[in-house]
Each structure stands twice: as C-alpha cells, then as structure tokens.
Amino acid sequence: MKSSSVSQAVVAPYAEALMALAQEQNNLDAIAKDVRLLSDTLSDSVELSGLFASPLIGADVKKGVIEGVFGSQINAITKSFLLLLVDRKRIAFLREIINEFQALLRVIEQVALAEVTTALKLSRSQEDSLRDRVKAMTKSKSVELAVTINPDLIGGVIIKVGSQVVDASIRGQLRRLKSSLTVGV
Fold first, then answer.
1. Does domain 2-106 have CATH number 1.10.520.20?
2. Which residues touch 146 (CB under 8 Å, ≥6 apart)?
3. What is the pTM of this model?
4. What is the residue extent of each domain of the chain?
5. Stretch 144-157: mean pLDDT
C-alpha cells in the first residue's frame, strides 16, 4: 500500500503538469494523441518498458531511444516531457503517468471508462450495446471500453464503472444462487 501512495505522489504531479501545459498551449488534442501512441507502444513492447524501468541503463541511452522510437511522430512538448522524465529519473513511472493523464482527459471530455470482463470476445454490436447502456447509466458524453476476456466466467459479462459493478456473468449468477440456497439451510 505504501509503494502505491509513493507512486501516486510521483505520478499525479507529472500527469497534471502535462495536462496543464497541453491546455495552456491549446494543444490538448495533439498531446492526447501522443499519449495514446506512447501507451500503445509501451503495451506492444515489453523491451521498451523494461529499458525505461531499468536503473542500469543510462539517461543518454534512454534519450536516444526516445528520439529513435518516437522521433518526429510526437509533438515537441511531449518529447520534452519524456526527456524531462529521463532527467528527473521518473521515466520508470511513464506507464502510470500515462494512465493518470488519460484519467484526467476522461474527466475533461466527460468520458466514462467501463472495465468489461467477458467469457468470449465481444462483437462490434455487443460493444456498441454496452457503450449505450453505460452511457445511459453514467450520463457521460461517451464511453471507453477496456475489455478483458476471462473464460472462467462461463458466459455473460461483468461491467465496472468507477465504484459500480454489474455482475451479469453466469459464474456470478451461480454464486448468488448457491448463497441463497445455503442461507435457508
């Protein structure tokens, strides 16, 4: 728990500073696009995440990798921010800073994040239906889905939006049925 609070104490100010700079420079859309690119790149490359996290790899190497991997693909503000993270030895927190920035962006744009767990991959129409239901439930302008597949659910779906959880999975139904049956015994 302590490391989480320490991590948050490091992460939040950097994410908030990047957000404030993006808004001040009237460049929020471009920087948000850069942050999505950074997020996708880190998700696709375990090696890059490991390189940024390693204290054994020098700042010059990390800066060279940032230049080589992202080069002119990202805004100058975003690149300067990444180089600042390297200089301040905070680049290891990049994934968490990105997540925090995206959370701030969702608040500004009134986008709800729905964490969806399903037994099987959802079709496009099922995703659209889920978005509509969550949008109605949260009164948000739009909904972003973070879908995880868990075959243990047997079927159905679990939707988590903020602190609300809707368990419409077969596993959840079986658990509730078992509970109701054992209460009477």
1. yes
2. 113, 114, 115, 116
3. 0.77
4. 2-106, 111-183
5. 88
